[in-house]
Amino acid sequence: MPDVVSVTAGHLGLIAVAIGLLSIYPRVRTAAPRSARAGVVVSVLSGVCSIVLLVAVLHLTVSMGRLPAIPEDTARGILRPIVGVVLLLVSLFTILLGFFLFGVASVRTDSVSAPVGYLLLVPSIMWTMLFVMHATGVNGTLIGVLVYPPIAASVLSIGYRLRVETSSGYVTSLIDSPA
Questions:
Q1: The domain containing residue 20 runs over which residues?
Q2: Burial group, residue 165, by CB count within 10 angstroms (0-12, 13-18, 19+)
């Protein structure tokens, strides 16, 4: 699969996840307002960085008239390659923080069920592992095999659990809230 296809799919996934994280905000905003607001800010920042990178990749593809080779052809794009790298790192780090902030807020306040709160922490742990593995020189294919399946499984599980809880009427009592 050409790198541009996987990069495009990856950015679309990060945008979808950033939007999905925003749906947690109404559940945790009263119990943990600062963490919830910080989670919104970093999730939006991640989504914006991913949109900019997606536009840059699409522009590069259209201007070249073919699928570009990444990173070889990125010098021809609207972004300098170093800017693309920085935006990618910011996008991944901020989505990591978004999951962490919403996960901690959820676990500490019981604003969503405990399984959902803990599942929100899984992507932040896995993306931290991604950064550590890249820094230590682990093979990129191995990183993909170890990091992304748990992230996908946790995101799908979070969506499923939230849907089931919403349809079953799971509501947290504000009386028992520590806030």
A1: 3-168
A2: middle
